[in-house]
């Protein structure tokens, strides 16, 4: 991945050579995350710190108090401009509300890279480094279909989504899963407009254990023969497993998820989760810092992954029951790579 | 003025002889006007005298209607007891919330206290090897302590309960994230290190009904509080404080001390709910129940407990929680999209408070 990025950056450097940029040694990069408690962002900060040391640049880190705390992030961006930073890495708490201050930063000559969460529109920032969530869903969908084999034709599928708002990460993973499983998804930005009879239903979990359990119970009440469970993230998957166990159905259903957090990977090892798609927050941040260092040195801009509106930081299927034709790693190897 | 003349005339004619005119006066005893006489008025009076009647009727009708719409799958002992399991945690929080609301307060920190105490007990028992009963005791003490903090801020610092608990909600939530690192403690680890923490998740069956000990605990809490509020002097004091704190004080009730006890008892119930939530969720999840405070207020309000204090039965909150659970389960089984469940709960709240206002007019 790093090699790919460097190739991209070199290509970019050739095309966009600009003079007069500051030396990398004096450069400063900012990392602004949604919160500083979520393990996902803790891992991001770890990656950014290591990359900044390696590149020999300064790193300033800021975070909001809670997810959705826009004011703190606005203040952090303003501080970074005032500090004369070369670039900002940010996971926007609100993909629209930060637009004015981001434009202000870019006008002041800073490189702005969105990490994990794209802005709306995405070109508010110079670049986006993120997980391909549709691909993350597609991998677990394809794995579930391959694991069921011929039985996939009469699967009974429960889908445990995030919340009623249908935000992008929610529909991308959900629809990716379905297309991987071989379900006609109709509108790819709309959850619930499919008419495949194999779908038992959708319910929302708020991405936590309690919501996962209640949602799973509700869908089992609709149809107790559910044998495939898609979950938005690993805490929701843990909750779904509790419900399945309480109904005595945990051997009947396979649970798939997305994230790659360490408790989730442990649940793969324990057989609670059949397969999960791991994302790489550490890589998002370290690649971001490298891009800022490069920009500070020669003014070159990072480029998107061909065919996508962002730079794909990769996703890896984790399962202890690999299937033919889908690249995956085991839970033991994944425990070294997981975040949190 | 012509009116003055009319008034003056008879008085002058009869001088001071008011005894004779007394015979012509009204002889019935003074009484209230029955403006709402008739069926509507009688219903209004009946509901005023029995505040739990509305939620009981709504619950019965809702179960009947969803039984018809969603059919066999809804109207089974299994599903009805499942609903009890699903509402048990919010139900316990609603019990704590009711206590505070009856005193004309509000407690926004109930869910935060609960999650924080589950994290504390989990950290101690699962990760630090403290014996589970001791870890739970620390959790209970913490819940009572958190309630005491609310009580002191309300009674000694004289902050409004809304502001106090808005503050402590944030404080407890932040402590929870700090202690847990926003990371769940896995169910498998709890099973190995401290299975006692998941005690209330275990279940027993009666026919095809399946009850968890957590559902039973919820009912026990409500019955105990009902007894405390209705059959003890302390409970009557709590109602009086909610109805008119100054009058209660003049009647010799130590209002501030009673208020602090109310918040401490609420904190203790939250800590019990914390224990039960570990069994219900299956793991210790710092991100769960973020909106539990609002859900508990929803249950209290739908249960007919007045936000203006001093009125409503604690049992109303139990029925309120069950109504929400029945609506969610029924709409879900009827295949209704989740956003319309949210929509329906919104209308339930508005209608419940509107009915409460209408009933209150009886005494106005």
Task: Please provide a written account of the structure.
The complex is a heterodimer of chains A (340) and B (364). Chain A is α/β, with parallel strands linked by helices and 340 residues long. Chain A folds into two domains: 2-131 and 280-309, Response regulator (Rossmann fold), CATH 3.40.50.2300; 133-279 and 316-337, 3-Layer(aba) Sandwich (Rossmann fold), CATH 3.40.50.2300. Chain A has helices at residues 2-15, 39-55, 70-82, 99-107, 133-148, 168-181, 209-222, 234-246, 262-269, 281-298, 331-337, and strands at 28-33, 58-63, 87-90, 111-115, 127-130, 157-161, 199-204, 228-231, 254-259, 275-279, 311-312, 315-319, 328-329. In chain A, the strands form two sheets. A seven-stranded mixed β-sheet of chain A has the order 7-6-8-9-10-12-13, with helices on both faces. In chain A, strands 2-1-3-4-5-11 form a six-stranded parallel β-sheet, sandwiched between helices. In chain A, helix 8 (234-246) links the parallel strand 8 and strand 9 (254-259). In chain A, helix 2 (39-55) runs parallel beside helix 10 (281-298), helix 7 packs across helix 8 and helix 9 (262-269) runs antiparallel to helix 11 (331-337). In chain A, 55% of the residues are buried. With 364 residues, chain B is an all-alpha fold. Chain B has helices spanning 2-14, 18-22, 39-49, 53-70, 77-102, 110-127, 132-155, 161-180, 187-193, 213-231, 233-243, 245-250, 255-281, 292-302, 314-333, 338-360, and strands spanning 203-206, 209-212. Chain B has one domain (79-359): ABC transporter involved in vitamin B12 uptake, BtuC, CATH 1.10.3470. Chain B has 16 helices and two strands. The model of chain B is unreliable at 1-7 (pLDDT under 50). At the A-B interface, strand 7, helix 7, helix 8 and helix 9 of A face helix 5, helix 8, helix 13, helix 15 and helix 16 of B.
């Amino acid at each position: 991945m790093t090699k790919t990025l460097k190739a991209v950056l070199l290509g970019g450097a050739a095309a966009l050579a600009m003079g007069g940029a500051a030396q990398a040694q004096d450069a400063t990069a900012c990392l602004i995350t949604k919160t500083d408690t979520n393990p996902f962002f803790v891992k991001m900060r770890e990656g950014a710190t290591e990359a900044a040391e390696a590149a020999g640049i300064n790193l300033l880190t800021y975070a909001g108090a809670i997810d959705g705390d826009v004011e703190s992030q606005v203040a952090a961006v303003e501080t970074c401009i005032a500090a004369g930073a070369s670039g900002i890495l940010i996971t926007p708490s609100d993909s629209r509300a930060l637009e004015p201050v981001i434009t202000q930063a870019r006008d002041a000559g800073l490189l702005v890279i969105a990490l994990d969460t794209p802005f709306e529109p995405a070109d508010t920032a110079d670049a986006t480094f993120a997980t391909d969530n549709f691909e993350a869903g597609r991998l677990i969908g394809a794995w579930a279909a391959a694991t069921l084999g011929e039985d996939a034709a009469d699967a009974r599928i429960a889908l445990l989504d995030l919340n009623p708002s249908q935000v992008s990460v929610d529909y991308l993973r959900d629809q990716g899963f379905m297309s991987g499983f071989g379900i006609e998804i109709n509108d790819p930005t709309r959850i619930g407009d499919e008419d495949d009879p194999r779908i038992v239903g959708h319910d929302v979990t708020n991405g936590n254990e309690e919501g996962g359990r209640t949602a799973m119970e509700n869908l089992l009440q609709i149809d107790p023969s559910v044998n495939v469970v898609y979950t938005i993230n690993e805490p929701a998957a843990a909750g779904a497993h509790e419900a399945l166990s309480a109904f005595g159905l945990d051997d009947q259903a396979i649970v798939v998820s997305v994230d790659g957090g360490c408790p989730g990977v442990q649940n793969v090892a324990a057989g609670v989760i059949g397969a999960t798609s791991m994302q790489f927050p550490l890589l998002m941040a370290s690649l971001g810092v490298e891009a800022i260092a490069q920009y500070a040195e020669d003014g070159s801009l990072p480029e998107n992954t061909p065919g996508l509106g962002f730079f794909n930081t990769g996703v890896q299927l984790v399962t202890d029951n690999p299937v033919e034709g889908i690249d995956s790693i085991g839970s033991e190897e994944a425990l070294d790579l997981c975040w949190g | 003025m012509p009116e003055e003349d009319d008034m003056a005339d008879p008085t002058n004619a009869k001088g001071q002889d008011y005894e004779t005119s007394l015979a012509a006066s009204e002889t019935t005893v003074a009484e209230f006007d029955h403006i709402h006489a008739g069926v509507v008025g009688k219903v209004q009076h009946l509901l005023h005298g029995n505040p739990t009647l509305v939620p009981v009727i709504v619950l019965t009708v809702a179960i009947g209607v969803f039984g018809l719409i969603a059919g066999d799958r809804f109207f089974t002992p299994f599903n009805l007891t499942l609903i009890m399991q699903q509402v048990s945690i919010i139900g316990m929080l609603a019990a704590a919330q009711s206590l505070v609301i009856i005193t004309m307060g509000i407690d926004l920190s109930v869910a935060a206290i609960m999650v924080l105490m589950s994290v504390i007990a989990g950290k101690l028992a699962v990760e630090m090897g403290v014996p589970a009963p001791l870890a739970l005791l620390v959790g209970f003490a913490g819940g009572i302590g958190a309630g005491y903090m609310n009580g002191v801020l309300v009674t000694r610092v004289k902050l409004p309960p809304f502001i106090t608990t808005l503050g402590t909600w944030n404080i407890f939530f932040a402590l929870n994230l700090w202690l847990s690192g926003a990371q769940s403690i896995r169910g498998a680890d709890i099973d190995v290190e401290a299975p006692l923490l998941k005690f209330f998740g275990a279940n027993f069956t009666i026919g095809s009904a399946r009850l968890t000990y957590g559902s039973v605990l919820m009912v026990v809490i409500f019955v105990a509080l009902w007894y405390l509020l209705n059959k003890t002097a302390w409970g009557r004091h709590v109602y009086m404080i909610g109805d008119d704190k100054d009058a209660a004080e003049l009647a010799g009730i130590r209002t501030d001390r009673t208020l602090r006890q109310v918040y401490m008892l609420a904190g203790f119930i939250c800590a019990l709910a914390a224990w039960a939530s570990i069994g219900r969720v299956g793991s210790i999840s710092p991100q769960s129940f973020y909106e539990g405070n609002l859900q508990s207020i929803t249950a209290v309000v739908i249960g007919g407990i007045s936000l203006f204090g001093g009125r409503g039965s604690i049992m109303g909150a139990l029925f309120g929680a069950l109504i929400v659970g029945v609506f969610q389960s029924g709409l879900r089984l009827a295949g209704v999209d989740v956003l319309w469940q949210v929509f329906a709960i919104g209308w339930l709240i508005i209608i419940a408070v509107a009915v409460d206002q209408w009933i209150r007019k009886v005494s106005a």
